[in-house]
Design a protein that fits this description.
This protein is α/β, with parallel strands linked by helices and 348 residues long. It folds into two domains: 143 residues, Rossmann fold (3-Layer(aba) Sandwich), CATH 3.40.50.720; 184 residues, 2-Layer Sandwich (Dihydrodipicolinate Reductase, domain 2), CATH 3.30.360. It is 35% helix and 26% strand. It has eleven helices and 15 strands. It has a nine-stranded mixed beta sheet with strand order 14-13-12-11-7-10-9-8-15. A hairpin with a 4-residue loop joins strand 9 and strand 10. The longest helix is centred in the last third of the chain and has 20 residues. It binds nicotinamide-adenine-dinucleotide. The site of nicotinamide-adenine-dinucleotide has 25 residues, from helix 8.
């Protein structure tokens, strides 16, 4: 039997349980260490999953020095991802890093370089890429089933409450809503998943125009942004990202001359049209007042990460892949700040 991968989790906040649960379910990993600068959060996570014997650290570098650990999940605030990933690579630990991989392209490049140099895997958590419908669309688009690419849209009308999200407690207050620590707002944090799907399917962006604003939240960063895009394949696109809009709904639309699909918030195709005049409504996009959370879990990306280590293969969402949506988000910020068209590749 193959040795299980020994994993450490760095950052034990909201998303960490999805990582622990994914590792435990995979049957390919042991969760051997948890780290949070607030050790009570690491202890609570250990208790929640009954992880007896798990090592608790408050200093992530001490966790990285632990020779028992093969791989780490980085589940800390955005501004720490680059520093922690680079350090982990230096200690020869494979890295599964939460989105966004970083808050600048310079940081992203440094992470990619450090992992390559030290011969460790780097995978970014874009779990929306691991569902049957999104995979099918990607494959059909690449095989020409959509015909001439016409238009793609990422619409993320989400809402986050100031009091329960940005100012929930000291941890949330300390990094959310600030350029220096969150790196942006609705786009870099929430909408980046759908932006990633848009570019993953439609391909690279040629140029874009954009504006954003902070309409209702007591935060530095944007709570609403709109962008218009030209893809390298000639199609046009739009991105709407928000944490200020209700009713909440989100979808991804991919439109071609022979086929079009709309993917709803559960990442399933809810409407589609195909040549031969067939128009099919699979399910209506439902209005939901409750907070929309990622409707797909981390299990797929975690299994892929573990397989990449055990079978020594390239992860599905490499650092280079994770960088692409970040580049679009940062280009939108630049377009707003400069008031002009931004062409790709983005120069920061
Ligand atoms: N993939 C997804 O769908 C998804 C969903 C939610 C969050 N996330 C991402 O996960 C990451 C964490 O988000 P969250 O909502 O769990 O945040 P959070 O604030 O709830 O948790 C972050 C944790 O990191 C700890 N921390 C901060 N600095 C540290 C340090 N120097 N050393 C050790 N621990 C430290 C904090 O104490 C906190 O417990 C972010 O990148 C976020 O974008 C991804």
């Amino acid at each position: 039997m193959k040795k299980k991968v020994n994993v450490g989790i760095i950052g034990c906040g909201i998303i960490a349980p999805s990582h622990v649960s994914g590792y435990l379910k995979s049957g390919m990993a042991n969760v051997v260490a948890l780290c949070d600068k607030k050790t009570e959060k690491a202890k609570a996570l250990a208790e929640r999953f009954n992880l007896s014997g798990v090592k608790i650290y408050s200093d992530y570098e001490q966790l990285l020095q632990d020779p028992e650990i093969d791989a780490v999940s980085i589940c800390t605030p955005h501004y720490l991802h680059a520093e922690m990933t680079t350090k982990a690579a230096e200690y020869k630990k494979h890295v599964l890093c939460e989105k966004p991989m970083a808050i600048s392209l310079k940081q992203a490049d440094e992470m990619i370089r450090a992992c390559k140099k030290n011969g460790v895997k780097l995978e970014i958590v874009f779990q929306y890429r691991f569902t049957p419908d999104t995979r099918k669309i990607k494959e059909e688009f690449e095989n020409g089933k959509f015909g001439i690419p016409i238009y793609g849209e990422a619409v993320v009308k989400w809402y986050r409450e100031d009091s329960s999200y940005y100012y929930a407690d000291e941890t949330a207050r300390s990094w959310r809503g600030k350029w220096s620590t969150e790196g942006g707002g609705a786009l870099i944090n929430q909408s980046i998943h759908t932006i990633d799907l848009l570019q993953w399917i439609m391909g690279p962006v040629d140029y874009l125009y954009a504006i954003y604003d902070t309409r209702t939240h007591n935060i530095e960063v944007e709570d609403l942004a709109v962008a218009t895009l030209k893809f390298k394949n000639g199609a046009l696109g739009t991105i709407l990202g928000s944490v200020a809009l209700r009713p909440q709904e989100n979808w991804l639309g991919i439109y071609g001359s022979k086929k079009s699909v709309i993917v709803g918030s559960d990442l399933k195709i809810v409407k589609q049209w195909e040549e031969e005049g067939k128009s099919k409504v699979i399910d209506e996009v439902k209005e939901k007042e409750e907070t929309l959370t990622p409707s797909v879990g981390h299990d797929g990306v975690i299994e892929d990460f573990l397989r990449s280590i055990v079978e020594d293969k390239t992860p599905y969402v490499t650092g280079e892949e994770g960088r692409k949506a970040l580049e679009i988000v940062l280009a939108i910020y630049k377009a707003h700040k400069t008031g002009s068209k931004v062409s790709f590749p983005l120069v920061e």
